[in-house]
Design a protein that fits this description.
Elements lengths: L7 H11 L11 E5 L2 E4 L4 E4 L2 H4 L8 H11 L14 H12 L3 E5 L2 H20 L7 E5 L8 H5 L4 H4 L9 E4 L4 H7 L4 E6 L15 H11 L3 E5 L23 E4 L11 E5 L1 H4 L15 H16 L2 H18 L5 E6 L4 E5 L7 H9 L2 E2 L1 E3 L3 E4 L7 H15 L1
Helix pairs in contact: 3-11, 4-11, 12-14
The protein binds pyridoxal-5'-phosphate.
């Protein structure tokens, strides 16, 4: 069929008829975007308040990122890691300079980068720490979200993510989130690592108590256990710092990044670590055909540059503070709690409000696109290039719908 004259309803029908039903999206069919704004096929304009789960921190079709994408696409897109290319080295150097870690290992999706961190931690435990082969435990947390591979869903506490997908990989132990004492008492001689999100995004922007990260760092160091922070969604400016862990002045042993690293254009992820950990990988131990491709690296390089040089991180801190204060000042019986950091805010609705989905649909009709997480929380996470005027525009609609 021709795509030029088709209506939204027709695209929805095609997707529902021929696509797998593993998502339940809002029925808005987007065909064009720029910065914080998107347009559907009928030409209706919306403010994007989800930013592709923070993969779009730099805004849609950022000119500098698109220019890098086009330029690289016409020159060299893929070599595989069997050969070298002239984009991977500069990206690794840029990331290390920016973060203070000594090495970067590139992958594509977030889940793959988490798997990479798990493999690094296990190999470190067996070859450096001295945990016997086929032993070792990684501590994970209730409410976690680290992706959708079979290993990762195996330690999810969300019943639906696991149901029917077993048998699962052993070697993980679930602990309550936000309680450092529980971690301390769970550690044994065979504990390999603590894998944790600094803020649980998919669980509804759950912010742990102040000092939690610092306590985990102390416990990990005291017991020779690796602290792995999944900053795939919390990192790259979302919380008003380059990484969320900077809010507590700590440094993890492995940081997992993804999402906004690809500038909303291509999937780019990876892990950052120092030599003691990254050194466990020898040629042949791990890899990915597309990981570290010149196209991905050129885009990621431009995406990082845009994020850092164009003030997006400071904007996230400043406007996040403003936005959360305005939301907290709202008087509505529908709201139970407003929480978050930077431009990453969850509004948890009262149980009697009837669920977040209908509010998201009402906001869509007013030109604001956002998505519920679980049943009762609306998540606000606009691109970090948003202006104060655009936040005010959104606030007007949020007030309309929630009060
Ligand atoms: C999105 C996300 C992932 C998974 O990333 P994919 O690219 O979807 O595989 C992992 N961890 C966190 C914290 C995420 O938000």
């Amino acid at each position: 069929m021709s795509t030029t004259a088709a209506t939204s309803a027709e695209f929805v029908r095609l997707e529902e008829t021929y696509g797998a039903h593993n998502y339940h999206p809002l029925d808005v069919v987007i065909s064009r975007a720029r910065g914080v704004w998107v347009w559907d096929v009928e030409g209706n304009k919306y403010l994007d308040f989800l930013a592709a789960y923070s993969a779009m921190n730099q805004g849609h079709c950022h000119p500098r990122i698109v220019a890098a994408l086009k330029e690289q696409a016409e020159r060299l897109t893929l070599t595989s890691r069997a050969f070298r290319n002239d984009q991977l080295g500069p990206l690794c150097a840029e990331l290390c300079e920016l973060t203070g870690f000594s090495r970067f290992l590139p992958m594509n999706t977030g889940a793959e980068a988490v798997e990479t961190a798990i493999k690094a931690a296990r190999k470190w435990a067996h070859t450096v720490k001295g945990v016997p082969d086929d032993r070792g435990e990684i501590l994970v947390f209730e409410g976690n979200f680290h992706g959708r591979t079979t290993t990762i869903v195996g330690f999810s506490s969300e019943e639906q993510y696991r149901a029917g997908f077993g048998p699962f990989t052993p070697g993980f132990r679930l602990l309550p989130y936000g309680n450092a004492e529980a971690v301390e008492s769970a550690i044994t001689r065979e504990t390999v690592a603590i894998l944790v999100e600094p803020i649980q995004g998919e669980n509804g922007i759950v912010v742990p108590p102040a000092g939690y990260m610092r306590r985990l760092r102390e416990v990990a160091s005291a017991n020779r256990v690796l602290l792995i922070l999944d900053e795939i969604q919390s990192g790259l400016g979302r919380t008003g710092k380059l990484f969320c862990y900077e809010h507590e002045g700590i440094r993890p042993d492995i940081v997992v990044i993804g999402k906004a690293l690809g500038g909303g254009c291509v999937p780019v992820s990876g892990i950052l670590a120092d030599d003691e950990v990254m050194g466990v990988f020898k040629p042949g131990d791990h890899g990915s055909t597309f990981g570290g491709s010149p196209l991905a690296c050129a885009v990621a390089h431009a995406a990082l540059r845009a994020l850092v040089e164009e003030g997006m991180i400071a904007n996230s801190a400043r406007l996040g503070e403003y936005f959360i204060q305005r939301l907290r000042a709202m008087k509505s019986a529908n709201i139970k709690e407003v929480r978050g950091k930077g431009l990453w805010i969850g509004v948890e609705l009262a149980p009697e409000a009837g669920g977040a989905r209908r509010f998201c649909e009402a906001l869509q009709r007013q030109g604001l696109l956002c998505k519920e997480t679980h049943v009762n929380t609306i998540r606000f996470a606009p691109p970090l290039v948003i202006t104060r005027e655009e936040i005010d525009w959104a606030l007007e609609r949020i007030v309309n719908v929630l009060t």
